[in-house]
Design goal:
- By secondary structure, this protein is α+β, with helices and mostly antiparallel strands.
- The chain has a domain of 194 residues: Beta Polymerase, domain 2 (2-Layer Sandwich), CATH 3.30.460.
- It is built from 22 helices and 12 strands.
- Helix 9 runs parallel beside helix 11, helix 14 crosses helix 19 and helix 15 packs across helix 17.
- The radius of gyration is 31 Å and the shape is elongated.
- The N and C termini lie far apart (134 Å).
Length: 460
């Protein structure tokens, strides 16, 4: 109450120009040290015992204050990476753009970063940037105050000390959490130019937390959306995967489109969502993914991207078949064409691309419900994922619902029931020719008639 009264009387300080931080005690913020993972607590305690400052920082603090269980806990400290490594036997320094330390505590891996400084200061080292202002390399260390100013949003610039059970707030992040506002620290245009992924992160966090984006933070997004083109495909893939597996992917996509950021991420996504059938199919996939995330169940990136791109594969497949190409070769060519287009923007990993192709390529085989082929399909490693994909195709109206039900029943049936479920071969199905067994070369030679003896030449 006192802090709110002071804020009303003296006004709110501008983000990025905060003076001394607010030190918020436990009885105000309510976070108990037991809410922090044991590995991160031990990491902070060890660093403090060695004379360094150390805090749990960023998204973990934000989520705890918002009543959300964090996925992981990051630690920030004034110790350099080498000093951190000397404090922990099981640790390693990684990273090129900005060096960090991975500290292994039992089954946990704690990411420890050194406080960052202002990379543009005249009396210190400057960060390496490209012509558009994107930071390429940035190993500038600084104070905790400078580190707070370098973070993206006010709600991510909160530091929690599990030893003292206090929260350090430099940029009114607690106020923004209370008012459900996402606000950029510093000049939004400059910060987006430094790292265009921050625009995607703003959308993801606003959707996840159901926050409003501050007007000054939101206004430049539409103008600077083209900067996304300058982001490395591998980093863009990681950020899109976080967005789509956030548990709020439907809301994220809606906000992406509202901010004009969907173009160029999945180049075909806008076209897919404009088609009624495609929109239904994609929405089902995203709702299913969100439900699994909320239930704590595993999700498959390959399955998710397979659903997002399936309607474009269908369109390309139909076009190739119309040109006279045989169905199965046409499908594999369509798969490659669609993934090649995506590779220009998203560095889909080889493993995920393999899962996508397995799910797609198995779909025509569900049409074969006679003979031994259904049994062979059950043995495929990706059968269950392929069946789930088929069931969503049926639910969206792309294929007959009876097909999906048949395969679900066939999967659960016993041997005798499965045999009774098999359909007769189609009348126009080509009969399989039996191959004649070839005899070994020695036996074949023995069966051949002996060559006639040459007739004697007449005497001279």
């Amino acid at each position: 109450m006192i802090r709110k009264l002071i804020s009303r009387v003296f006004g709110r300080k501008s983000p990025g120009r905060a003076g001394e931080p607010a030190v918020i005690p436990h009885n105000t913020h309510g976070i108990r040290r037991e809410a922090i993972s044991s590995g991160s607590r031990r990491t902070v305690e060890t660093l403090q015992e060695n004379g360094y400052k150390a805090f749990v920082v960023g998204g973990a603090v934000r989520d705890l204050l918002a009543g959300i269980k964090p996925k992981d806990f990051d630690v920030a400290t004034d110790a350099t990476p080498e000093q951190v490594r000397q404090c922990f036997r099981r640790s390693r320094v990684i990273g090129r753009r900005f060096q960090i330390v991975h500290v292994m505590m039992g089954q946990e891996t704690i990411e420890v970063t050194t406080f960052r400084g202002h990379h543009g200061q005249q009396d210190g080292p400057r960060a390496q940037t490209d012509e558009q202002g994107r930071v390429l390399r940035d190993n500038v260390f600084g104070s905790q105050k400078e580190d707070a100013a370098r973070r993206d949003f006010t709600i991510n610039a909160l530091y929690y000390d599990p030893v003292a059970e206090t929260v350090i707030d430099y940029h009114h992040g607690m106020d923004d959490l209370e008012h459900k506002t996402l606000r950029m620290i510093g000049n939004p245009v400059t910060r987006y130019r430094e790292d265009p992924v921050r625009m995607l992160r703003a959308v993801r966090l606003a959707a996840k937390l159901d926050f409003a984006i501050d007007d000054e933070t939101r206004r430049p997004i539409g103008e600077l959306a083209d900067l996304i083109e300058n982001v490395p495909p591998s980093r863009l893939f990681d950020e899109m995967l976080k967005l789509l597996t956030s548990g709020h992917s439907v809301r994220c996509l809606q906000r992406l489109r509202a901010e004009g950021l969907h173009h160029g991420l999945l180049p075909l996504l806008d076209v897919i969502l404009e088609q009624p059938q495609g929109k239904r199919f994609v929405t089902l996939a995203l709702e299913n993914t969100d439900r699994r995330v909320r239930e704590g169940r595993p999700i498959s990136p390959g399955f998710l991207f397979a659903t997002l791109l399936w309607n474009e594969v269908l369109a390309r497949w139909d076009a190739l078949k119309a040109d006279g190409e045989r169905p199965i070769p046409a499908l594999f060519r369509a798969m490659d064409d669609v993934l090649d287009v995506q590779a220009e923007k998203l560095a889909i990993t080889r493993r995920v691309a393999g899962d996508i192709k397995d799910i797609w390529s198995i779909q025509p085989r569900f049409e074969q419900r006679s003979g031994k082929r259904p049994y062979g399909l059950l043995e495929q490693p990706r059968f269950k994922a392929g069946l789930d994909f088929l069931l969503m195709r049926a639910e969206s109206g792309e294929v007959d619902a009876e097909l999906g039900k048949w395969w679900s029943d066939f999967l659960d049936a016993d041997g005798a029931t499965r045999a009774a479920m098999l359909l007769p071969p189609a009348p126009d199905a080509p009969k399989k020719r039996r191959r004649r067994k070839r005899k070994p070369a020695a036996d074949a030679a023995a069966d051949e008639p002996a060559a006639p003896a040459p007739s004697p030449e007449p005497a001279a």
